[in-house]
Write a structure and sequence with these properties.
InterPro entries: AAA+_ATPase, ABC_AA/LPS_Transport, ABC_transporter-like_ATP-bd, BCA_ABC_TP_C, P-loop_NTPase. The protein starts with 26 loop residues before the first strand and ends with a helix. A six-stranded mixed sheet has the order 6-7-8-3-9-10, sandwiched between helices. The chain has a four-stranded antiparallel sheet with strand order 2-1-4-5, with helices on one face. The protein is 32% helix and 23% strand. It is built from ten helices and ten strands. A hairpin with a 2-residue loop joins strand 4 and strand 5. Bound molecules: adenosine-5'-diphosphate (ADP) and magnesium ion. Adenosine-5'-diphosphate (ADP) binds next to strand 2 and helix 1.
Length: 275
């Protein structure tokens, strides 16, 4: 007896070489032919990417290859020369930057940006207030539930009353991550979250990201530490000169001769880096 329909849910009409997606296999964010040109500088020049729901995607590439410009485009902080952006099924390449958090996209910056005169909890609450102005007016006895929860998820409950300046750089970065996830985003963008950190702090951030993935949070990580990318990401994109060089399983991407030449240098070995 034949089935009346051969369809099994949604099969995305995509490239011939299907994207290796973890999690549910659906896309949290789609980038189509994205270009950002600054005068004659083609910072991003025709990028098409699908970020998998529930996974950690990563981007590697040399300095100046366009990674931060891509993040600026995804958060609408820079003007697109062309391209389409879709998050959670909604096209958003024309929305104002202020609407991006409401679409479920949160980010951390390359350099830590916290208010040093406020406590850890107050910094995290800023992320919450940005979303929920109405609640800001309500008298708050203790912390709003989502703020307390974000502190808990990032292991910051014990230092909630400290000032960021009293904390290690790695812990300050966790405060930024807490401030981003308090908005309950569908996607978290992290642009070089471990820049300037020691190896132990990098491991800590990687572990936090994997914990957040296990809780269902999709993430996009930009990072120079290739070993961290191998340890953290489900899927890797390699960029060079504003373009996508290749993508796939992290180990395969790192082993790709084009990536080796553009970025890694001939002597790099995954095994040697972390043992
Ligand atoms: N606002 C800007 N105006 C002009 N050029 C820019 C601007 N932002 C970035 N660029 C240029 O775009 C290219 C990509 O930069 P960037 O996205 O910061 O790369 P990455 O993050 O990979 O190091 C570089 O050549 C950079 O100098
Ligand atoms: Mg950058």
């Amino acid at each position: 007896m034949s089935s009346p329909s051969t369809r099994h849910g949604t099969v995305p009409a995509g490239p011939a070489d299907p994207v290796d997606v973890p999690g549910t296999g659906t896309a949290v964010l789609e980038i189509r032919d994205l270009a950002v040109h600054y005068g004659g500088v083609k910072a991003v020049d025709g990028i098409t990417m699908t970020l998998a729901e529930g996974g950690i995607s990563g981007i590697i590439g040399p300095n100046g290859s366009g990674k931060s410009t891509l993040v600026a485009a995804l958060t609408r902080l820079t003007r697109l020369t062309r391209g389409e952006l879709t998050v959670g099924g909604t096209r958003y390449e024309r929305v104002r930057p202020g609407r991006v958090p409401g679409l479920g996209i949160a980010r951390t910056f390359q350099t830590v940006r916290l208010l040093g005169d406020l406590s850890v909890a107050a910094n995290v609450q800023l992320g919450y207030d940005a979303r929920s102005r109405a609640e800001r007016r309500a008298p708050l006895r203790g912390l709003p539930g989502p703020v307390a929860e974000a502190l808990e998820r990032t292991g910051l409950t014990d230092v909630a009353r400290a000032r960021p300046s009293e904390l290690s750089y790695g812990t300050q970065r966790r405060v930024e991550i807490a401030r981003a996830i308090v908005m309950d985003p569908r996607l978290l963008l992290l642009d070089e979250p471990t820049a300037g950190m020691n190896a132990a702090e990098r491991v800590e951030i990687s572990a936090l990201m994997r914990q957040l993935r296990s809780e269902g949070l999709s993430q996009l990580l930009i990072e120079h530490d290739v070993q961290m990318m191998l340890d953290t990401c489900d899927h890797l994109f390699a960029m060079a000169q504003g373009r996508l060089l290749t993508e796939g399983r992290p180990a395969d991407v790192v082993a790709d001769p084009r990536v080796q030449e553009a970025y890694l240098g001939k002597g790099w070995k995954a095994d040697a880096a972390d043992q």
